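Lab notes, practical 5.
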Amino acid sequence: MTERRIVRGRVGGFSPWEDQFGFSRAVAVGDHVHVGGSTAWVDGRIEHEGDPYRQTLAAFGVGLSALAAYGLTAEDVIRTRMYITHVRDADEVGRAHLQLFDAARPVTTMVVVEGLIDSRMMVEVELDAYRAGLAKTLEGKQP
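Output from the prediction step:
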């Protein structure tokens, strides 16, 4: 697995599209961290093809790994967004969300979209997290 490093408040190294399209997986702004669209793309391949529940767990795993670079966990998540490619998958995607975030109960949105960048992807997720004093703890960790 690629080493994740905070560079100027940003974390990357999770997908080939980061360099191709010019984005970071996560960005810290003050005490907030925003994690961009994460999918079941793990170690150069799509995991759990055809299984919306397991793809959702994998996608949130990618997002939570980005948060971990800042020392944050699922308990720090205050908002999630789930983009699914078929309404029939809503219950399974929601079940995975419940499993991961039942204790935190973030604000959430689930939207059905026509498709994602790879047709094998069934779900893409975003996370926003907050921890009071995070900006102070990140000072001095920036290269």
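Observations recorded by the TA: The helical segments are 17-21, 52-68, 90-101, 134-138. The longest helix spans residues 52-68.
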